[in-house]
Amino acid sequence: MTDLLKEIQEGFANLDHSGRMLPIMAMPAACPAWVFREGDRFGVAVECPGHLDISEGFAGAKLRTVERVVAGQHRRFLRLESSIEWLRNEFGLICEHMISVGSGTAVRQALLTDPLVWWHRWRHLLGNAVVDKHGYDLLAELLALETLVIKGACCEWTGPFGGVVDIKTSASDYEVKSTISRYGTMVNISGQFQLAASSGKPLQLLHFRFEPVDKGLSIDLVCDRLIALGVDADMLEGGLQRLGMEAGCSARKEAFNLIEARSYKVDDSFPRVTPASFIDGVMPAGVVQFEYRVDLSGLKCEQL
Fold it and tell me: Residue 267 and residue 189: Cα distance in Å, rounded?
C-alpha cells in the first residue's frame, strides 16, 4: 500500500462528518490535494479553475465541482466522492489514481483541463454496461414548453415532478416523446395511463426528432431562453435536479439539431391501450405493469 493510499483511507476512517478538508501530506507542494468527509459523503478534492463546472455520477461515485471556504478564502474544488461506506477502502484506490502525480505535474494539468476524460475512462472500466444519459428526451420537453409559452399558454411542467403527462395547460395536456433515429417512427408507451387523457382535457402527443451535432440546441441553452421568456428559473433547475441533471452535468451540454417536431391528437382514432381497453377497466389478474410501442407512421399529425 502506498503512503498516499494509506493516508486517504485513514482520512476516510478518522474524519468526522463536519465537512473538514484535511491536506494530504503525501502530495507534493506543487500539486496539493485534500481528503474530506461531509455528511454521508467522503472523498478527495483538488483545487480547480473557477470556470470549471462538473457534475457526473456513476456506480456509487460522483465527480463534481464545489465551492468551499478554506483558510478563510473562497475556493473552488473538483471532488471525487462516494457515500458507500462499506466500499470506502476500495473507493480510495480510485481517489488515489485521480489525485496522484507520480508521473509529473502534467498529469494534474490534464485532469483540470478536461476532468471528463479521466472520468469516462474509469466509468467504462468499472461498469459492466455503460448506459449514457442522453439529454434529448429532456430537451424535447423543454422545447415543447418553449413553444407553448411563446404561443401564450400558461404552462405547468409536470414531467419531472411525477405528473401523468409531461406538460399541462388550461386547454390541453401534452405527452412528449423524442428520438435521434433519422427514420424511426416507434414510440414507447408506459402502462395504461400514459395516453389515457385522465384530466378530461384533450391530449396531444408531441414527437421530436433530433440529430447529434457539435454545436446546436442543448438543455442549458433552451433553459436560458425559457428564463428570458419569464419561466421561473428555480422551477426549471428543480426539475432538472429531480431528473439527476444538476448544473455541470455533461448531458445538459449535449448539442442537437431539431429535424422535425410533430403533434398528434390522442383521440379514439389513435392506437393506444387505456383502462377502457380492459373488461370493467381492470387489467387481468397478475398483470401489474406493461409497456407497448406505437407506430406513428401513417397517423394524422401537424407540424409543431
Answer: 15
Q: Decide if 136 contacts 143 (C-beta within 8 A).
A: no
CB atoms within 10 A of CB 229: 11
CA 117/CA 81 separation, integer angstroms: 17
Q: What is the distance, to the nearest Å, from the Cα of residue 88 to the centroid of all Cα atoms in its chain?
A: 25
Q: Could you give the CA distance from residue 252 to residue 216 in angstroms, rounded to a whole number?
A: 12
Position 151 pLDDT exceeds 90: yes
pLDDT in tens, 196-214: 876 678 999 999 999 999 9
Q: Which residues of 128-149 are buried (b: 16+ CB within 10 A; e: fewer)?
A: eeeeebebbbbbbbbbbbbbbb
- b/e for 180-216, b at 16 or more Cβ within 10 A? eeeeeeebebebbebbbbeeeeebbbbbbbbeeeeee
Residue 267 and residue 204 in contact, taking contact as beta carbons nearer than 8 Å? no
List, for residues 265-302, the tens digit of each pLDDT value: 998 899 988 878 888 777 788 877 788 899 999 899 99
